[in-house]
Amino acid sequence: MIDFKKIDKTWTLFLDRDGVINHEKYLDYIHTWDEFKFYDGAKVAIQIFTQKFNRVIIVTNQRGIGKGVTKIEDVEIIHKNMIADVEAVGGKIDAVYFCPDLESDNRKPNPGMGLQAVKDFTDIDLTKAIMVGNTLSDMQFGRNLGIKTVFLTTTRPDVDTNDEHIDAVYPSLIAFALDL
Questions:
Q1: Which of 3, 8, 16, 34 is flagged as catalytic?
Q2: How do residues 94-150 score in pLDDT, each as one tens digit?
Q3: Which candidate, 132, 127, 138, places its Cα nearest to that of 6?
């Protein structure tokens, strides 16, 4: 279990993107900013996380780039606009790491993006970090980094939430934020 009372400005929060911050497209990818739709309360959740955590970092697989169906420039625009919208409500995203590869050490559940964040932000202490995601791959990523995990039931209601990779379960990002 995670003792949320112990979370302070020495902790880091890793967030997946699609299905966590924004709506996923069924059997497809978010290709452009016009397709990116925040979940209700997601921006406020990140604003709350900004007050509670030292770092808020996005780690997202973006296989559409590797498959040649999504342009890297469009993903960069999505991330730039997402950050700006979060900042407009007083939130902060310290970094966005994305993996366009179909297979690599950076693709979740492998820990590459998290290890890159630790290299880039030397104040990250993985004993004080949480991964929030909506897939078992996200939860395995968290375990591969040795950190706590929070599973959101936004898009995968069939996942067994008693899975050993899951420490806590919430219906949405804002529900988790309001519980801190």
A1: 16
A2: 999 999 999 999 999 999 999 999 999 999 999 999 999 999 999 999 999 999 999
A3: 127
Report the C-alpha gap between 149 and 9 in whole angstroms: 18
Annotated catalytic, 158? Answer: no
Assign 140 to helix, strand or coil: helix
Domains and CATH numbers, the chain: 12-178 (3.40.50.1000)
Backbone angles phi, psi at 158, to 5 degrees: -85, -10
Contact 105, 112 (CB under 8 A): yes
| Active-site pick, 8, 18, 101, 120 | 18
Strands (E), 3-62: 12-15, 55-61
